[in-house]
Amino acid sequence: MFGCNRKQWAISSIPNLSGRVAIVTGGNTGLGYITVRELARKGARVYMLSRTDTRARAAIEKIKGELGPELKPEIEYINFDLLSLKSAKKAAETFIQRENRLDILVNNAGIMATRYELGPDGIEIQACNGTGHFALTVSLLPLLKETAAMPDSHVRIVNLSSVGYLFTYFGKPDFSSLEDLNRNRSTWVRYGISKLMVSNILLTNELQKRLAESGTTNIYCLSVHPGVVDTELIRGPLQSWPILAPLAKITKLFSVTPEQGALTQLYAATSPEIEEKDLKAALLFPVAQLKAKASLAEDKDGKLGNDFWALCEALMRQKA
Ligand SMILES: NC(=O)c1ccc[n+]([C@@H]2O[C@H](COP(=O)([O-])OP(=O)(O)OC[C@H]3O[C@@H](n4cnc5c(N)ncnc54)[C@H](OP(=O)(O)O)[C@@H]3O)[C@@H](O)[C@H]2O)c1
Questions:
Q1: Cα of 30 from ligand 1 centre, angstroms
Q2: Superkingdom of the source (predicted)?
């Protein structure tokens, strides 16, 4: 589809990233862990934004052990909780105090199919997959734009989506107000809505559109579905339906490893092809394949994206 054989894209295809700075949310396990490790392996300074200090610090030590001392990987940690808009804004501010550039932002953290529950800001916790990343990304935008204006910049914003965004067809998304967002729909529809919101395809579309309107044309925003990957994401469904625990073993049989699953987000974050093919606001499926968006995600009239953006801005004013 891009004029090259997808099978050729592998972790070894990641270019040298020396001098670049990256953020990966939820980098302490699963897809995020591999993403942090492989960006650091190629020389990027990588910030792991995670909610649990002990898990993040243990993961960083593990990655350093896997990469070996001769590479001298640079991996930092900043606390970040998707459930709290204040935490997301503060994480961005902490990062901006420490760094003067941000080349790669991978909005990877997320939960799936959890029970209905409101977070500390009164937002349904799966919806926070979207709102938390909105708060982080918007707070980092000035620095992302500054980086894009630097010579030889390759700025990427990669939002982890899921084919699960299609569940929204079973429960129409509505971002007109917090009450609409918080409506108690079925578990999977709420996940689908969170993955449509940002991951987060509407965030990708809307960001790309707003960047172009503000004259920034060299930041590439992408959404990625990683495939069905054997990670800790299964925690959500097991919490909602403990009876399904034996089935978890079966899902492993048709899941890919986190190393395989992380390929598409690593491609989106680093491959020169993204710019060569001008893949702005693209949706990628594994491995590194361009995928047409369903009409809800395409959002041709921009209404869903606009409503989502306006709601998140209002929530930020009230709660961040
Ligand atoms: N695995 C799949 O098959 C699959 C398919 C489609 C899409 N995805 C998407 O891929 C992304 C990564 O998932 P994964 O499979 O790697 O899952 P995972 O192994 O469960 O990792 C999720 C990461 O998100 C973090 N996280 C969860 N809630 C958070 C919060 N409130 N604040 C900050 N961090 C939080 C987790 O932190 P803790 O370790 O502290 O809990 C963990 O680091 C998710 O966005 C998911 O929706 C995965």
A1: 7
A2: Eukaryota
